[in-house]
Amino acid sequence: MDQQNQIARTGIPSLYYVKCPKCGSASFIMVGQPGAKGKSIGIALAFGAIGGLASAHAASGRDAVEPLQYHCKDCKKKFVAGPLEAMPDELLSAPATINVERVKSSVGMAVPQIVFINGVKVGELLNGRVMTFQTPLRFNTLVVTDHFGVAFKTGTTRFEVQPGAAAHFRFNRKYV
Ligand SMILES: [Zn+2]
Q: How far is the CA of 80 from the centre of ligand 1 (A)?
């Protein structure tokens, strides 16, 4: 247990205070699940794709949130980190809505991509589809990976949303 888990009991996973253990940078991209490429995804689904994100107990209760591997953009080292429990001041007064559109493409069209928010898997996204879910946090990290859980190099984006607002992302191996 880290200190932040003992201080704040929001029950909401967050990457906002995650830092590179080597250099302290907060500038990183997700690599994917630790371990061999191609291993099946072992990350518990802490949230449902729709509506479940506001459930404060989802991540701290029976569903484990497993650590993921990140790549520091400053010192170039890789590190493994789990989401931390969000501090109360990270919470929005009303949840925001996130739409992630996978732009239709003939490359890899049959293969699902996987969407992660704040270090937690949301679900699989099929070619040409839009996934809609909510976030209770002001500062968010959105990642799209391939179906093995290996993040696309340009698949990590960090953004801020306002209470009750909606954020739209279009993705085709990078945000477009
Ligand atoms: Zn670093």
A: 12
* Residues spanned by the domain of 74: 10-171
What torsion, rounded to 10 degrees, do the Cα atoms 59, 81, 14, 86 define?
80
**Which pLDDT tens digits describe the chain residue by residue (176 residues)?**
455 445 547 889 999 999 999 999 999 999 998 764 444 443 333 333 333 343 433 444 334 577 899 999 999 999 999 899 899 999 999 999 999 999 999 888 889 999 999 999 899 999 999 999 999 999 999 999 998 889 999 999 999 999 999 999 999 989 99
Question: Per the domain annotation, does 105 fall within a domain?
Answer: yes
Say how many domains are in the chain.
1
Q: How far is the CA of 27 from the centre of ligand 1 (A)?
A: 8
The reply to whether 4 falls in a domain is: no
Q: How far is the CA of 76 from the centre of ligand 1 (A)?
A: 6
Alpha helix (H) ranges present in the chain?
A: 3-7
Q: Is the dihedral of CA 25, 68, 9, 12 positive or negative?
A: positive
Tell me if 155 is assigned to some domain.
Answer: yes
Expressed in angstroms and rounded, the spacing between residue 68 Cα and the centre of ligand 1 is 15
- Residue 158 in any domain: the answer is yes
